[in-house]
Amino acid sequence: MKRAMVIGSVGAGKSTLIRALLNEERPASKTQSLVFRDWLIDTPGEYCENPLQYRFLIATSFDTRLLVLVQDATRERSYFPPGFAGGFPVPSLGVVTKIDSPKADTAKAKRFLRQAMPKGDIFEVSSMTLEGIEELRERIESLVQPKGKSDRG
C-alpha cells in the first residue's frame, strides 16, 4: 500500500496531526524513527532540519504517493529550503498547523510552505479543535487510496 509521508520540523505538530487524522485518542509522542501507520508515515523532525538526513526522506518517498509538508503557524522560520518538494518523485501538499494558537500567523506559514512547494494545495488545521482535519483527511485519502478503497473504519 502506498502512503502519504508527513514531513516537518521538530515540534511542528506532525504526530499530533497524524493522531487527529487517524481519529486516535492516545497522546502523541516524539517520533524517533520512521513510523508507518495505516496510510501515513510519520517522520522525525530531525530528518527535515538536517540536510544530511534528507536522503532518508528521499529514499522513503519512493514508497509513497504523496508528500505532506507541515509548517507550524507559530514559528518564526521554516526549516524547508526553497524548492524542497521538487526533490521528491511524488506530488506534495502543505499543512499549516496550530491555527488555534493566539501566536499563529497563518499567512507567514503559507508563505514558508509556498517557497518549499510552489505547487499543491495548502490546508490550515488545528489538531486540538479538529478544525480543517476532515477536509485534509479526505484530500489525502483521495490522493493516496486507490479509487473505491479506504482503510478507514
TrEMBL record:
SUPFAM superfamilies: P-loop containing nucleoside triphosphate hydrolases. InterPro entries: EutP_PduV, P-loop_NTPase. Keywords: Nucleotide-binding. It holds the Pfam family PduV-EutP. One of its GO terms (molecular function) is ATP binding. It comes from the Bacteria. One of its GO terms (biological process) is biogenic amine metabolic process. Belongs to the EutP/PduV family. This is Ethanolamine utilization protein EutP. The lineage of its organism: Bacteria, Bacillati, Bacillota, Bacilli, Bacillales.
